[in-house]
Amino acid sequence: MSWNYNTSLNRVEKHLDGMGDIEVEKLVRDADLNSLLSETTCRDIFGAHVYVDVPNFSDLATLTAEGDDYRRVIQALHLYEREVARIVEGEDVFDGVRIHFQGAKLHALFFRPIDDAEEIATRAVLLQMVLRHFVCCVFNPEFPKLPNLSVSGGADIGSAIGTKNGHKGDRELLFLGAPANYASKILTGTDSLRVTAAVYEALPETLQAYFSAVEDDRLDVTVYEIDDISTEEMDQLLAEHDIDWDREASLQRLKDDKLIYPLNRIEYSDAEVQIDIDALGITNNKRVLAASVFGDVSGFTRYIDRTMADDDGKAALRVLHAVRKEMSAIIRHDFSGIRVQFQGDRVQALFHMPKGDEKRIAARAVDTAIALQSTMELVIKKLLPEAKELGMATGISIGTTLVSKLGTRGHRDRICIADAVEEAARYPEGSAGGEITVPDSVHEHLNEELQKLFVWNKDRGLYIGTNLTQDKVERARKAGLFKQSVYVTSGAAGASVSSQPTPGSRSFVPSSSFGD
């Protein structure tokens, strides 16, 4: 299993030749986005992107609990995602679009009524309020044996390009642009609900009164946090804005789902062979030692926003589609990993074989990251020079991971839950293009030559490898071969060098300058 320059080059060339013309038009009427969008049929969509996360689930999935205690975590996650999807997409409730769950993190979109900023922003805010109340007052009491869960939310509003790509039944909705990006970036991981200034300014004054301005030092911007409100205040707001959420109905659906998916039907096990993630479900889950890899196309949000302003969004989408398809090919075909899902301009992958072999799992994950970097620098930028300002930033972490496919029928999402998943996703944030970031627990499993290509960053508490393309790594590995004893034999035909002793040969260790 390895990356090959010519193979990668040929794959990308073939994809570009067969891609066809890309169409980007403004969305001016209601539509079923899953049916409308494709790799070449794209839309500029004005809407509010909302992320709502339950960070506790990662901690719970990482615990060493066994038996019914662990089954209860899986059951709770499944039921949570089912009911949240109903709340988001219910025509009589929020009438939004559940794009997908990234682990326990919901990504939803509101774009109806078309271009109605006030109504769209209002729904984004009220959804966060409802989900916080749902978790606190409905969900937690139904799972008294679990620690109380809390939610973190973020929302932004504006135009983003909607598209859809993937392989046959593996196609996913994608949204590219600042709103889809910043809604996720302003999440805090704690019990807070936030919106950007753009959302706040679009709200009616009656809703603005429930916010407090705070400074986000990470992003150096002012954001607005939703204050805690009483049940009576929330019910009044929902009535004023015609949102028909019924907490008693949600509670009853949770109770019904508990009967449909009792603990004794939920199974989990380790994996003897590579996981077929699409064959998993609530009754068949995997719990494995795995490396999570997140490959992020750094600079793409800025790139897509600039090209859209210059009316050249088609070129940016052509770059993205080429990068994403090759990312998937590298993970699945070159290194036999699992491509979990795409999240905007980044890919999530998982490596868990050979079973329990942490050293080989870590090495394969790092080799994949090097291949992603190599493709970006040596292939994509050669075939698509307009991608010169982009980079690849990759994060890797390793740990026990829950792998499944959960949610509502017909809309189940691939799920990987663990602290290691969250860490790997966080590492590329703020990274410069060309960086591969790994913790000590991954670095210690690499061979000596590869370890030396990573530098410890005290401020970030991570090892960082910069611009590690395949050719650079191969040179380091070959140099490493000459840092052990070699054997020289002289004769009439001259001198020969070998790594193995022969009759009459003399051994010596080459100087470090020769090895380097």
Topology:
Elements: H1 5-18, E1 23-26, H2 33-36, E2 41-53, H3 56-62, H4 68-89, E3 97-102, E4 105-110, H5 117-142, E5 152-165, E6 172-176, H6 178-185, E7 193-195, H7 197-202, H8 205-208, E8 211-216, E9 221-226, H9 231-240, H10 247-260, E10 268-269, E11 285-298, H11 300-309, H12 313-334, E12 338-343, E13 346-351, H13 358-383, E14 391-406, E15 413-417, H14 419-426, E16 435-438, H15 440-443, H16 448-451, E17 454-457, E18 462-466, H17 470-481, E19 486-491, E20 494-498, E21 506-508, H18 512-515
Parallel strand pairs: 1-2, 5-7, 10-11, 14-16
Antiparallel strand pairs: 2-4, 2-5, 3-4, 5-6, 7-9, 8-9, 11-13, 11-14, 12-13, 14-15, 16-18, 17-18, 19-20, 19-21
Helix pairs in contact: 1-12, 1-13, 3-14, 4-10, 5-9, 5-10, 11-12, 12-13
| CATH hierarchy: architecture of the largest domain | 2-Layer Sandwich
User: What's the shape?
Assistant: globular
In CATH, the homologous superfamily of the largest domain goes by the name Nucleotide cyclase, GGDEF domain
Note the main sheet. Answer: 9 strands, mixed
How large a portion of the residues is in β-strands, by DSSP E? 25-35%
Quickly give the structural class. alpha+beta
Overall mean confidence score, pLDDT: 91
* CATH level-3 fold name of the largest domain: Alpha-Beta Plaits
Q: What Rg is obtained from the alpha carbons, in whole angstroms?
A: 25 Å
Flag low-confidence runs: 512-516
Number of helices, where a helix is a run of at least 4 consecutive DSSP H or I residues: 18
CATH C-level category of the largest domain: Alpha Beta
CA-CA gap between termini: 26 Å
Number of domains: 3
Percentage of residues in helical conformation: 25-40%
Count of individual beta strands: 21
Organism: Edaphobacter paludis
Protein name: Adenylate/guanylate cyclase domain-containing protein
GO molecular function, one term: adenylate cyclase activity
